[in-house]
């Protein structure tokens, strides 16, 4: 995604250079002239020069080819040090027949991947360099993938901790309120517990809200567990239709009171979601939550959240819009690029939309946030080209 999981940075360029180390100047010139037509050749005349070059340009070097016999330190010593300091670089050794025993020892110690006998045979050397280059680039791709998976899991874990903390704080608040309403047992019967209500049905409403938020928190934890598991499998979780994702949010999000009635869904053209469904579910829940918070902060006469699903062969979008107060221009300019929140006093961290942007980037998409001066906010999740499906009705 890009890595399979969230990560907004571009894929770094793969190392492509071949570094030859030999203390004979003519040998360096001949090698650069002979193989420069296919490879990006760098040269060094000693172990010291080679290590200095690798310290400066190590991210560009994919293959190290060194002669065994050199002054000061030999090629095997160089290979051993490179193995420790630059483990992804493919290591090859040139040696004459007389150095065969030393060369074999280098192989046995793992310092070198292959030995080329001097004088170099051009077809054999080209093939060896191509294979070593490909092996290094494969290791770089795997390392990048693992780093991004680790980064994505760390970010998802931080996001999950925040998202789970919100409903659990609400549950805790309801339970404390119920405890405050607990009365002394009646008639000396210690098996009876009575709760006072300030309005009819208040206690039942608290229990229902607490249960909804508990279920939602558990679903988020389950989502993270699946994401952590699927992060190490190339296929990830199964794809599904955008309409199914919207339906899952309608049915799984812990709406309060009549909030569910604020949500209107329009399916213009369905499409198959790319990437991991579980992460996209967290994205959509985050955007809906932000819309609900905006509507509660300055309630309009008729609160409304509209989700539109529109897919074409060239472009697919899920748009979530609300008729709340909108977003100040100075805040809007920073959204999706850095953590920014207007709700820090109530526990907001600003990581929600940053997380959404990273998830969308991981599937080749983007997040666009619009908020006109007249008010209201529209968040568009752009997925790029996807497979469209026939119209599927989404319940309103």
Tell me what you see in this structure:
The chain contains ten helices and 14 strands. It is α/β, with parallel strands linked by helices. The protein folds into two domains: 17-147, 3-Layer(aba) Sandwich (Rossmann fold); 237-396, Histidine kinase-like ATPase, C-terminal domain (Heat Shock Protein 90, 2-Layer Sandwich), CATH 3.30.565.10. β10 (305-311) and β11 form a beta hairpin.
Keywords:
single chain, 396 residues, alpha/beta, Rossmann fold, Heat Shock Protein 90, 2 domains, five-stranded parallel sheet, five-stranded mixed sheet, 10 helices, 17% strand, elongated, disordered N terminus
Short description:
This protein has 396 residues and is an alpha/beta fold. It contains 10 helices and 14 strands. The longest helix has 59 residues, at 122-180.
Topology summary:
Elements: E1 17-21, H1 25-35, E2 40-44, H2 47-57, E3 61-67, H3 75-85, E4 90-95, H4 100-108, E5 114-117, H5 122-180, E6 182-183, E7 194-195, H6 202-230, H7 242-252, E8 263-267, E9 270-271, H8 277-297, E10 305-311, E11 316-322, H9 329-332, H10 351-362, E12 366-370, E13 377-384, E14 388-389
Parallel strand pairs: 1-2, 1-3, 3-4, 4-5, 8-10
Antiparallel strand pairs: 6-7, 9-14, 10-11, 11-13, 12-13
